[in-house]
Design a protein that fits this description.
single chain, about 475 residues, alpha/beta, Carbamate kinase, VC0802-like, 8-stranded mixed β-sheet, 6-stranded antiparallel β-sheet, 15 helices, 16 strands, about 40% helix, globular, binds adenosine-5'-diphosphate, binds aspartic acid, binds magnesium ion
Length: about 475
């Protein structure tokens, strides 16, 4: 018997599936890959469609069903046009099945009627982008002579019911992935799986969070012990900074999982942070490549970092706020930090950054600005006794804040890094509001006012670029 070819998962982002030309380009890449490996494709929604679906949900919630239906019509036309154009190019019919759009209209009508939108129905509405794009990519492949089958990820991946950012239960999902996909491999069909979506234990549609198709690809790769997971996007790979902020950011050919995790956690949009976790667990390389320049080698994210010292990349996240608890009465009182974290955990608020001054008279937390009001209220309630006695002053909140992070495995044990970081930021006249250094020493992160974000990233990137040029 012939040895089965190694599995390679290929994920195409919305930017790589934006129109007929791009879908055909993706299909060609898959057709090439299918000659040397067992291919699994993962499709994101066509660029911008998830945003449109969420906008339609918002309109429906306000009772504006006509506006919501207009959005649906735009989405329908865009997919139909892509199918038509592909048919013209390939001289073979590329079908588009609009049936899911009826279910979408029903869901929107329900929301409009009730003028209420739960997280559950938002996930259902958001799921349609991938449910339309995956069959279109499968049809394009078939029209190119590569037998393919669209697969709804809700038959493969089971998550918890944290709608909007659900987490996959790999124990339940991995066997399903293998059970559903193995017969397709045997028949020589390329599965084209919907990214982003999954189902809860009760069978409701869930989503893995915005940009979650990367995570779908990594989860499938982990379940299938893939040789690698390729993330096709619109940049050459992971760059030393967001190219929209730093136009001369350079390509990082190799990153460790830890560096990728730190970068994506602190805002590098090129990869969805949770995608790194299944890849680490099964030691599967993630390769980020440009679908417009497939000859490029991209960025390989694997166990070992590239050699070299110092900072490798700069990232930033916006939309944060800074909360601080101050008070002389906090000195030497054990358990204040534990109570702060207990409160945020109870609220389900994720604390992006935390710092405690060594005098123990101040604790600073950075968290999403959207969670500001309820977190302040809950902390004031938690520390009501200390506030009455004057041990703690009121909880102060400021924002909007951005967190800027310098990342690099080589920062460990390189003396003087923090000095260089803060020297560069000070020279750019940016005021640092709070600082944290992860215990891994692979990152230094600090909070700045939102209007200083770009200046801080650029100033810090000049340090990275200087170091890269010197090696
Ligand atoms: P896709 O639709 O392929 O998933 P995304 O828009 O989610 O694409 O991610 C790619 C984009 O991420 C790039 O176009 C770039 O603007 C942005 N980006 C932000 N930070 C980085 C970085 N450090 N390296 C590369 N791209 C980055
Ligand atoms: N379509 C989803 C989004 O726009 C998921 C993804 O593209 O990865 O967030
Ligand atoms: Mg993305």
């Amino acid at each position: 018997m012939k040895k089965p070819l190694p599995v390679v998962v290929h994920k195409f982002g919305g930017t790589s599936l934006g129109d007929a030309e791009r879908i055909l380009r993706a299909a060609s890449l898959l057709a090439d890959a299918a000659k040397k490996s067992t291919v699994v494709a993962v499709a994101s929604a066509m660029g911008g469609v998830t945003d449109q679906l969420l906008a339609a949900a918002h309109q429906a919630e306000r009772g504006r069903i006509t506006a919501a239906r207009k959005v649906v019509a735009t989405i329908r036309e865009r997919h139909q046009r892509a199918a038509q154009e592909m048919s013209q190019t390939l001289h073979v019919a590329v079908g588009f099945d609009a049936a899911p759009l009826e279910e979408l209209e029903t869901a929107l009508s329900g929301v409009a009627l009730l003028r209420e939108r739960t997280a559950r129905v938002t996930d259902l509405i958001a799921s349609f982008g991938e449910r339309l794009s995956a069959p279109l990519l499968a049809a394009a492949l078939a029209a190119k002579g590569v037998p393919a089958r669209a697969v709804d990820a809700r038959t493969l991946l089971v998550t918890n019911d944290a709608h909007g950012a659900a987490q996959c239960d790999r124990k339940k999902s991995d066997p399903k992935v293998r059970r559903v996909l193995a017969p397709l491999f045997e028949k020589g069909l390329v599965p084209v799986v919907t990214g982003f979506i999954a189902r809860s234990p009760r069978g409701e549609t869930t989503t893995l969070g915005r940009s979650g198709s990367d995570t779908t690809a990594a989860l499938l790769g982990a379940a299938l012990a893939a040789k690698e997971v390729v993330i096709w996007t619109d940049v050459d790979g992971v760059l030393s900074a967001d190219p929209r902020i730093v136009p001369n950011a350079h390509l990082l050919p190799r990153l460790s999982y830890r560096e990728a995790a730190e970068m994506t956690y602190f805002g590098a949009k090129v990869l969805h942070f949770p995608a790194v976790l299944p890849a680490i667990a099964e030691s599967i390389p993630l390769v980020i490549r440009n679908s417009w320049k497939p000859e490029g080698t991209g960025t390989v994210i694997a166990s070992k970092a590239a050699p070299g010292s110092g900072i490798r990349a700069v990232t930033a996240i916006s939309g944060m706020c800074l909360l601080s608890l101050d008070g002389r009465g906090m000195t030497g009182v054990a358990g204040i930090a534990a109570r702060v974290f207990g409160t945020t955990a109870r609220l389900g608020v994720s604390v992006v950054m935390f710092s405690q001054a060594s005098s123990e008279q101040n604790i600073a937390l950075v968290l999403p600005d959207a969670d500001r009001a309820r977190t302040v209220a809950a902390l004031e309630q938690e520390f009501r006794y200390e506030r009455l006695t004057g041990a703690i002053d009121s909880v102060r909140a400021s924002g909007p804040i951005a967190v800027v992070a310098a990342v690099g495995d080589g920062m460990r044990g390189t003396p003087g890094i923090a000095a260089r970081v803060f020297d560069a930021v000070a020279k750019a006249k940016v005021n640092v509001e709070a600082i944290a250094q992860g215990s891994s020493e692979c990152n230094i992160s600090f909070a700045v006012e939102e209007h200083d974000r770009v200046a801080a990233v650029r100033a810090l990137h000049a340090v990275v670029a200087g170091a890269a040029a010197a090696t």
